[in-house]
Design a protein that fits this description.
Layout lengths: L15 E9 L3 H21 L7 E9 L4 H10 L4 E6 L6 H18 L6 E4 L8 H15 L11 H4 L6 E3 L5 H5 L2 H14 L9 E3 L1
Parallel strand pairs: 1-2, 1-3, 3-4, 5-6
Helix pairs in contact: 2-3
Length: about 210
């Protein structure tokens, strides 16, 4: 599977790569948002070192969604990247998150056996960055000048509420399940439900 924002296999590989890490998503809108962040980071890094060529910047999910973090790490290792920098874009970043990222790296290295792997560096939580204060002030100023919301754009409750579900189909979305094709199973079920209007017609079926 080719990952978003990945360089063609024939292109020369930089020695370093950056991965924006998010927790989970199942929507194309979230993927586009992360792709936009990758583009912004890529542009900033290229301005710093234009002679090095386009930097490798990717995004990955730790819990649910594609591409999964371990899949990205495998691809970067196969491409010969020497240094991988994980940027956990998580607020709040619970204390266990850093340990969870280390577990991902440990399992990934165990899966690769005796093959080579990049060195992996994990950035600190966003809340620990000195730049977070400026970001919050910028958001506060933007909110002050934003138009007031009266809820007019929100659909009526009858059109926005999914009826009570009689059946729920749960699909594992952990990294091993994703590697085994869980996202394809989940997408197939959603397509069937959409075609049969099972999500909106009582008794209703929901896939999670």
């Amino acid at each position: 599977m080719t990952l978003p924002d990945s360089m063609p296999s024939a292109a020369p590989c930089r020695t370093s790569a950056w991965v924006i890490v998010a927790r989970a998503s199942i929507t194309a809108a979230a993927d586009r948002e992360l792709q936009g962040l990758c583009e912004k980071l890529r542009a900033q890094l290229q301005q710093r070192a234009p002679e090095a060529g386009p930097p490798q910047v990717h995004y990955a999910y730790t819990e649910q969604g594609e591409p999964a973090l371990r899949r990205v790490l495998h691809q970067l290792a196969d491409a010969g990247v020497a240094q991988v920098h994980l940027l956990p874009l998580l607020l709040p970043m619970e204390p266990g998150t850093a340990l969870a990222l280390q577990r991902v790296v440990k399992r990934w290295r165990a899966q690769r056996g005796g093959s080579t792997w990049p060195q992996v560096h994990v950035a600190p939580a966003p809340a620990l960055s000195p730049a977070i204060a400026s970001l919050l002030v910028e958001m506060a100023d933007a909110a002050t000048h934003a138009p007031a919301s009266d809820g007019a754009r929100v659909p009526d409750a009858e059109g926005a509420t999914v009826p009570a579900q009689r059946h729920r189909v749960l699909v594992c979305a952990g990294a091993p399940c994703t590697d085994a094709g869980a996202s394809l199973v989940w997408g197939h079920l959603r397509n069937i439900q959409q075609a049969r209007n099972q999500r909106t017609d009582v008794p209703g079926v929901m896939t999670g």
